């Protein structure tokens, strides 16, 4: 089969569409004939040599795919050849075929095309597990989503609105502000012009900036608030004022999905299928696709992500 190899750490040009060995299918695995994959910020870090895949997983980039089941391992009863599926991966999605533990495989939700489904697993699992399972966002509460125009942000805004929360979000331009308002955001803050921590009080914050926003995020939390950090775009270190935390009884979480054990991912995936897929099937939450790029041209898709002009997901199609 062919897959995108990272020939050496570097810019988009190091991504090459090469002939590689077929993946081996373990007893608990599902082999997927890939229809599409999608680009995530983590793939850029992997390309640059800053984010190695977890031990024992595929060396090729790609944290999600959609496709058709080609084969199942001896102990898999949940899926069969011919099923249309999408899957959360630890890697290996930029390829013609990928083998994945059955626990990480999901049906394609109704109303979503087989291609669009490639852009759902990573955002749905990340947003559901962090904002709802860990952050316990409830109806009537306020969610602050940093980077509302990102793949993660566009999904978080829609899901939180669909479940009855008020949503405030940050973006870097007037054009992106328009786009996230159209997705349902109640209040939009341009982070280049305003300090969000002066403008918003939130019960849950989904943060992608890490160190640079830590103090502001704690300031912006309501009493009993929950900050969930999933990205470190603003650095991994910062000083924390514990006094500000204890007087408001706030919690700070920091998590990553990719490194979690398969069974943990399975719990999240099943919870997404039960709680999020019905909202997608009802049209309350839609995939936001910025562009479709041929998979062999993954370098072009990475250039697009690097430029920062996208809103939502960039798909890699076969
Ligand atoms: N921990 C996990 O399990 C997990 C899983 C998935 C994703 N993530 C993280 O989630 C983040 C989004 O991922 P993605 O793939 O959706 O990336 P993406 O589409 O490339 O989005 C990056 C976003 O960062 C925003 N941004 C940059 N500087 C900012 C600032 N100072 N304040 C607020 N926002 C700022 C950009 O906003 P503008 O374009 O408006 O400037 C853009 O929307 C990444 O940091 C990624 O690593 C973590």
From TrEMBL:
<protein>
    <submittedName>
        <fullName>Putative NAD(P)H quinone oxidoreductase, PIG3 family</fullName>
    </submittedName>
</protein>
<dbReference type="InterPro" id="IPR020843">
    <property type="entry name" value="ER"/>
</dbReference>
<keyword id="KW-0560">Oxidoreductase</keyword>
<feature type="domain" description="Enoyl reductase (ER)">
    <location>
        <begin position="10"/>
        <end position="316"/>
    </location>
</feature>
<dbReference type="InterPro" id="IPR013154">
    <property type="entry name" value="ADH-like_N"/>
</dbReference>
<dbReference type="InterPro" id="IPR014189">
    <property type="entry name" value="Quinone_OxRdtase_PIG3"/>
</dbReference>
<dbReference type="GO" id="GO:0016651">
    <property type="term" value="F:oxidoreductase activity, acting on NAD(P)H"/>
</dbReference>
<keyword id="KW-0521">NADP</keyword>
<dbReference type="GO" id="GO:0070402">
    <property type="term" value="F:NADPH binding"/>
</dbReference>
<dbReference type="Pfam" id="PF13602">
    <property type="entry name" value="ADH_zinc_N_2"/>
</dbReference>
<dbReference type="InterPro" id="IPR036291">
    <property type="entry name" value="NAD(P)-bd_dom_sf"/>
</dbReference>
<dbReference type="Pfam" id="PF08240">
    <property type="entry name" value="ADH_N"/>
</dbReference>
<dbReference type="InterPro" id="IPR011032">
    <property type="entry name" value="GroES-like_sf"/>
</dbReference>
């Amino acid at each position: 089969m062919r897959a995108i190899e990272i020939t050496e750490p570097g810019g988009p040009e190091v991504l090459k569409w090469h002939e590689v060995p077929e993946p081996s299918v373990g007893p608990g695995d599902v082999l997927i004939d890939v229809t599409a994959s999608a680009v995530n910020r983590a793939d850029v870090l992997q390309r640059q040599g800053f984010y190695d895949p977890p031990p024992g997983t595929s060396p090729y980039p790609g944290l999600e795919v959609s496709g058709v089941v080609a084969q199942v391992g001896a102990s898999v009863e949940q899926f069969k050849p011919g099923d249309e599926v999408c899957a959360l991966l630890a890697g290996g999605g930029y390829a013609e075929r990928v083998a994945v533990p059955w626990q990480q495989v999901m049906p394609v939700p109704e109303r979503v095309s087989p291609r669009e489904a490639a852009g759902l697993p990573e955002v749905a699992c990340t947003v559901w597990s962090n904002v709802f399972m860990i952050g316990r966002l409830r109806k009537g509460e306020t969610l602050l989503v940093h980077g509302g125009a990102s793949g993660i942000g566009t999904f978080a805004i829609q899901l939180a609105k669909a479940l009855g929360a008020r949503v405030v979000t940050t973006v870097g331009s007037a054009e992106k502000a328009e786009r996230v308002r159209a997705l349902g955001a109640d209040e939009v803050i341009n982070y280049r012009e305003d300090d969000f921590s002066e403008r918003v009080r939130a019960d849950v914050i989904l943060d992608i900036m890490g160190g640079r926003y830590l103090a502001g995020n704690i300031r912006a939390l309501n009493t009993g608030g929950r900050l969930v950090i999933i990205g470190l775009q603003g650095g991994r270190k910062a000083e924390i004022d514990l006094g500000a935390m204890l007087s408001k009884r706030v919690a700070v979480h920091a998590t990553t999905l990719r490194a979690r054990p398969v069974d943990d991912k399975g719990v999240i995936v099943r919870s997404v299928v039960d709680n999020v897929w019905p909202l997608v099937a009802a049209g309350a939450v839609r995939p936001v696709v910025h562009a479709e790029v041929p998979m062999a041209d993954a370098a072009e898709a990475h250039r697009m992500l690097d430029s920062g002009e996208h809103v939502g997901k960039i798909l890699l199609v076969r």
